[in-house]
Each structure stands twice: as C-alpha cells, then as structure tokens.
Description:
The structure holds 3 protein chains of 3 kinds. Chain A has helices at residues 50-57, 80-87, 107-117, 124-137, 154-166, 184-201, 212-218, 236-241, 246-254, 260-265, 317-325; strands at 5-17, 23-35, 39-43, 65-70, 73-74, 90-93, 172-176, 204-209, 221-226, 229-235, 306-307, 313-314. Chain A is an alpha/beta fold. In chain A, helix 3 runs parallel beside helix 5 (154-166) and helix 5 runs parallel beside helix 6. Helix content of chain B is 69%, strand content 0%. Chain B starts with a helix and ends in a 6-residue tail after the last helix. Chain B is mostly helical. Chain C folds into 2 domains: 4-231, 3-Layer(aba) Sandwich (Rossmann fold); 234-263 and 282-340, no CATH class. Chain C is an alpha/beta fold. Chain C has helices at residues 48-55, 83-89, 101-104, 111-122, 127-140, 146-150, 159-171, 189-206, 217-223, 241-246, 251-259, 337-340, 343-349; strands at residues 4-17, 20-33, 37-41, 64-73, 76-77, 94-97, 177-181, 209-214, 226-231, 234-240, 308-310, 316-318. In chain C, helix 4 packs parallel to helix 7 and helix 7 runs parallel beside helix 8 (189-206). Mean pLDDT of chain C is 84; it is low at 342-350. Chains A and B meet through helix 2, strand 6, helix 3 and helix 5 of A and helix 8 and helix 9 of B.
Amino acid sequence: MSNDTLIEVKGLKKYFKVGKNQLLKAVDDVSFSIKRGETLGMVGESGCGKTTVGRTILGLYDVDGGSVLFDGVEVHAQKGKEYKALTKQMQMIFQDPYASLNPRKTVSAIVGEGLDIHKMYKTKAERMEKIYNLLELVGLNREHANRFPHEFSGGQRQRIGIARALAVEPKFIVCDEAISALDVSIQAQIINLLMKLQSQYEFTYLFIAHDLTMVQHISDSTAVMYLGTLVETGRTEDIFSKPLHPYTKGLLAAAPEADPDYEMSKPSPILTGEVPSPINPKPGCRFFGRCNVAIEICSKERPALVPVDEHHLVACHVVNTLKSEV
Amino acid sequence: MNKTTNILLPNAFEFVEDPQLDSDSITRPSVTFWKDVWRRLFKNKVAMLGLFIITIITILAICVPLFSEYTYKGQDLVNANALPSSTHIFGTDNLGRDMWVRVWVGARVSLAVGVFGSVIPSLIGIVIGGISGYFGGKLDMLIMRFIDVAMCVPSMIYIILIMLFIGSGPISIIIAFALTGWMGSARSVRGMILQLKEMEYVLASKALGASSASLIFNHLIPNTLGIVVVSMTMGIPSAIFYEAYLSFIGLGVAPPTPSWGQLSNAGIAVFRVYPSQLMIPSALISLTMLSFNLFGDGLRDALDPKLRS
Amino acid sequence: MSKRILEVKNMHFSFYTYAGEVHAVNGVSFHVDQGETLAIVGESGCGKSVTVQSIMKLTPTPPGKLKQGKIEYMGEDITHYTQKEISSMRGKEMSMIFQDPMTSLNPTMRIGHQIAEGILSHENISKEKAKQKAIEMLIKVGLPNPEKNFMSYPHQFSGGMRQRVMIAIALVCNPKILFADEPTTALDVTVQAQILELMNTLKREFKASVVLITHDLGVVAKTAQRIAVMYAGKIIETGTARDVFYDPKHPYTWGLLDSVPSTGVQSTKTLLSIEGSPPDLFDLPKGCSFAARCKYCMNICREMPPEETVMANGHKASCWLLDCRAPSVPSQKRVSRVSKLNVKEAAYVE
C-alpha cells in the first residue's frame, strides 16, 4: 500500500439478519481507497448501504467479510485501548442534526465529551478554552456553550456536531449525509466550513450524500453505490462529465437543477421503478431490474468493478463488452 | 416613499459598515428540559391539586407526631373509643390511643413504604434493563426470559412468601417490593434503551471512543428518566395500597407501630359501632392514591414531547 | 388571461405560545390561475406550509390564529368559512398532498378503499362505480396491477408508490387546486423525477392548478411557471420562473441561487452562501427581516421594512435596493445552461 493512501477498504461485507433466514446484504463486496487529504464522495439512493459503509469503516459495526485499513492498521482487529486510540483519529458527522445531539446535555458537554474520553487537557480552564476555540472554529460563539441543543437551528446544530468531531483532532472524518437535512443556504455554509477545515488541517473526508451537486463540488473522487455494491468509481470530473454505468447516467439525469430552461429541455426521466429490497438479492447484476440496456448475462452473473482507464472503474457487463469489442 | 425616512436618516441609502450582523445569536430565553416540564406541570390545575394534597399530607405526617401532646402508643383508657372531639381530633381507638397521632404516624410508615417501595425497585429495574437493552444478545435473552417466567406468578405471592421468610416490618416490605417490583420497570427501560441506542448521538459518542458504562449512564439512562419518573410516581399509590393490604391481612407492619393498612384492620373490628375508626384511615389511603395518580398523570402529560410547544 | 382560482390578500397568521406570539405569516399575498403551477420556495420555518395549511384551515386554532387577510376561492370569500363548510370543499375543490405519505395514509385500510372513500363522500354514486373510478385512478398514477393494488395496504408499498396513491386520493374528485407540501422531499432522486413528471402530466390532464411548496430550487425549475420566494413569513420576491431564476432582484434569492453549485462546472471555489440563520419568528426585526444576513444591507434596511416594487411582467420584489435612491450593485443576471451547452456536452445529458 502506497503511503499516500489513508483508507483502504477491501472486499467489505456487512450483512444484517432480518427475521429468520433472511439476510439483508447492506454492503456486499465493496472495495475502494481514499488518499490522504482528499475527499471521496459516495452517492446512492436510500438503502444502497452508503451509511453502513461509513459506520463500518469507523468500526461502529463489525464486518462480515473483508477488511478496512486505516493508515495501514486493520480497524476491526483492534480491541479495547487500541480501538479507543483509533477513535481519536477517525470521526463522524451525522445526518440528523436533531438526533445526533443528546437533548439533555449542554453544548459544552457535547463538544467536550471527546476531550474527556481521551483526557486531552490538564486543567478545567484548559478544557473550556479548547471548547471555546472549537466553537469559534465552526462559527459559533462562546455564549453558546451553556445552551441546550434544542435552542439552536439545524445549521447551528450541525456546527456543534462538527465541533464535537474536531475536538479529538482526527485525521479522517466520515460525513454521513451531513447536509441532507439542512436548508439550501445552510448547506452551502456547512460545505464551505468543511472545505475550509480541510485546507486548514488536511483532513481526509468520506462524504456520503445523495445530493449530486454538492458531491461534485466537494469531492476529488466519487463512488456510486447501488444496493450494497459499487457500480462506478473514478475522479469526480470523469464521473460527472462522462458517466458510463447506466445507473450513474440515470441518477445524473434525474437530479433537477435550478435552471428552468435546461429542465424543460430535458427528456423524461430515464430511470423507472424504485430501488428493490436488499433482502436476499437475486444473483446477477443488482441493477438488472431497472436497467434499460441489460443483456442476458446481467441476470446471471454479477459484474466486477473493472477499470476502463487509470482511475475510472465500472461494474457493468454492457460497458465491458462494448469496450472489449473496441 | 415617505418623507419621514429622509428626515430620520440622512445616510439611509448608504451601505452599513458591518453588513452581516450576528444573526446567529439566540434571542429566546434559555429553557432547560426540566424547567419546561415544570412550567407545563404548573399549568395543569388537577396535577397541582394532587401535588398540593400530597404536600399537606406529608407535612402533617412529619409535624403532627412531633408537636402533639399524645404519642402513638400512649393510652388514655378513660377515653377509649372516643368519637372525634376537640381533645382527640380523630377520636381514640379501643385502647384509648389518640387516632389523630396514630393516623399521621401511620402516614409516615405508609408514605415511606410507598415512596421507597416504588423508587428502589425502579432504580434496580433501570440498571438491569439498561444493561440488558444495551448489550443485547445472550445476556438480554437470559434476563428477559427470567423476567417472563418470574412474572407469570402474581407478585403478591412472592411478597407474602418473602414476608413470611424475613419477618414483618416496614423495611421488610420495602425489601420484598424491591425483589419483585424491578421486573416491570426493567422491561420498559430495556425497550426504551433498544430504541435510544440507535440514536445518532449514541453512535457519535461510541465513535468518540466512549466506554459502555459511560454510554449507558451518560446518554441512555438520562433519556429514559422522564418516563421512569412517571412510572415511579404512578407506582407509589400501588405500593401504598400493597402495604395497606399486607398490614390488613396481618403480614405487614406489626403492632403497635401503626400504618394506614393496620389502622384499617383494627377499625374493621369495631366498624359497626365506631365507623370513623375504619373510615378515616381508608379515606386517607384513597385520597393519597388519588393525589399521586393525578400528579403522575399530569407529569406524564408534561413530559410528553408531542405536547411540547 | 386564464381564470383566477385562488387569491390570498395580506394574510397574517400567528401562533400563540407560552413564550409569546410566533409571527408565522406576515402579510402574504399571492394568486393562482387556472392550470398553472405556483411554487412557494423558502427555508424551513419561513411560513410556507402554514400559509397553505391556513387556506385549507388545517392548522389547529388555537394556538394558531388568522389575524388578518382575505382568502378568495373562485371569487368567493372563504376567509371565515367554518370547518364544516371548508371540509366539504376539501378533496372536491382543493386537495393537499404531504411530504410523508405514510403518515397521511390510514395503515389499516386498503389502498383502494381509501381512494373510493373520497369519491363516496363527495359524489352520490354506487360503491361499484366508486371502485371502478378508484381503479382508473390507480392506472392514471402509474401503479401497475390496479386490481391487486386496490386490495393492498400502505405498508406493502414503497415510498414512491405511496406518494402515487396520495396523488390518486387527492385528484380523484377532480379538484381545481392541488397543494403539494414538499411532495418529493422524502423520496430518492430517481423517484422524485418520476413523481414530478407524473404531477406535471396529471396537472395537464385534470386542468388543475398546483401550489408546490418546496425548498428545492431544482424541483421548482422543473415544475413551476411562477415562483414566490418566502422569507420569515413574507413573500420577498415573486414572478415567472424565468424572471426569478435568470433575473432575480432580491439579495436573498441571489443567495439561494448561489448556494446551489451547478452540475455543469466543477469548481473548488467556496460557495457563495448566505451567512447566519433566519430570524426568530418570536421577535422579528423592525426593518427588513433579511437585513442581518444581507451583504448589501443599508442603514434604512434596519429601520424600515421595504415596500414591494413592481417590475415588468408581474415580477415583484421587496427590497430597498430597488429604490431609486439606492446605490447600484453588481448585476445578478444569470444565463441558462442550455445556451451555454455545446453539442459535445449535450450528448452526455441524455
């Protein structure tokens, strides 16, 4: 593994048992890596397993196969103190700014929790000073420290969540739909804040979202997920300017833009139907039922993620056959 | 546009120097969760009436035995079985003991048994339910199956067996309640924990490297407290009632120490001749139970997040 | 000029809570003509839902109260209609669909019966005929297998299918106006595209008007002919979709449009966001409510609320910058991506 890779995910599998004999394959054989100081955007519709990927990388879930390497260290092999040391380096920003803050705690208790757990101060005064600095770093005031979460607006709450994650001075941050629940103007604030922090502290981000425009704006590379599998990965500009997988194409075409003339000129939506249930999936390509270019092999064999050029990988039989014919 | 603007502001149409004001400042007063609950509770007149009656009964239970010239066992045989009068406010019993003092000493016992008999099992239940819900898996299954089996038998049977085994007295009653009463609250706390542990703030704390104990006691249990407090409040009247029942059948508090149940038991023997000796303690039992129930109801409404505005 | 279906004049709506009066809607006026889609855009808490709910009288009163204003439906004043009068209009004259279809469908009742129920309560026809009509409606909203779906329960459906059912229920009695409160916010992008397409088609077929409430400018661009931008309980800018998107006049609209990066070009630049948070509706500033977040705030903005300036084509905005005495600011005109697209790029759009 080259030294500039921070996160290396290999063949990650995470299954959940649902009732008797039912297996929800939330993440099924997913591999990717993230370079130091870069942002990987992960897009996909609800139920595609992107949140599970994020949580599994941090070790919040066990794995059912595959491994996650953080800076060369296998996350799921670490227990007790070693795992605790790892939590100091990897953090998470959550989707729901209401559910992610304990309603009974003050802001200083929430932000200070990581400081307490990892004993990152010598005196009480130093602790408060650190909390104040963190609040100011994310654009809040000192006066906010003694307030309770319900007194803040959604965007301010998300800032508190960011301050909590930054408290332990991590290297890697998973942003799990960190802006989805916010208003448009607030989304831009949070994106700007995340990008500013990245340039200041050289964070590595896994930016999970369903909003394509924001992913395009913030990410260096993009991974598209569908029903627990990666269908396409590559540099962001490649994914957005020349998508290859039919799902990526459909997803890009479906995202409406703030441009009425352009919207009116667009053809009807390409993708029909909805994401099927990930419980006991059928063999073959996961996208088979909704794909409008499917060929016979698609229903039988799962396509592997293969490179079309240096950075661009696609898991699609149709694309591969076209390529091999050329 | 009107002229007054120009008179008021000669530089009205100039850009201000610090365009972005602090729109992030919070103008609303800070309201903590419990302050808010208290405010709603205070508005609920029925609940406040309940609380008022509970307070009066508690004050009387504390003060009357302290300041009265009679004691609960002192006899005034000349005035045995006296009717309520100015010397003996509630009259006397067949041994000439002052009922007014006996009722309030009995209130001490009944209230203490009621409060501790409800709070202690709830606390045990919170811890066991919290652990069971948080860790899940085999431990959870074991605890839950144990509770299922144990709860098949009515708790009164356990209590009677325990009382027979360790003897009677207020402390024994509380122990008996503690050994049987935790199961219900453990079950409901476990249910809540199962829901809460999926909350993102718990995950956030986990991601920060928090230990299990810290997760349970800092994040999970405090968020179940509201509902637990309600069930404790609602548990008090039933504990009072159980105590009265046990004393009534002779298993509870031993004479001469009075309790409301015991006083009722004594009163029933002379009910046909001196009905007040049964009516007074049983009326107090009813009034106290009603007040706790009204207060508990109000507390539940006050804690219901759906009613928060 | 097409027929005016709904007109709201100077509506004020407040909630009275323990902490004081929440000014949810502060003088909102708008109208809806036959067959058009009006989008009310704004951030959460700007009063867009309350506005629509108070027209349908769906907000609980108390604590809510319509303080002032006039609501006219087809030229008739319905401001002071009783619940009974307005409920006879719901479904038949005006309908509403909500963000979360699961909570607005009865989980214990078959889908078909929920659709037929609406027909039976408004029209005097037999149960058989109502069922027939419900099945027709299911086909129209694009649910395959209508006979089978008629007997299904809501939990058997996915989010998109439930929203289709909601649309079927809302349109089955042929209402003249459909209020859609964030109808696609809970849905995935690809499903959202389908639902919006369906709404556009059905709107034409039923000749209904739509009032779409949303925070998503992309959704607005896809569906609306006219737009009203709301901020802190006021409509701060309104006009045709093209006017508002390509020639916005209010700094808040500028900010909203700037906050969305366009998919056409990737840039590592910081987004031009609106700093700060919307004002607390308990305690509105005396001047313009956007002044505290506005880049172009002038002295007068903090003192007096701006009046509405009417421009060509019914384009209106409330901002002191539009006053003739105000200093000039950089032009905020925008160009559609279509005019910028070259042929090569257009190929990828497909």
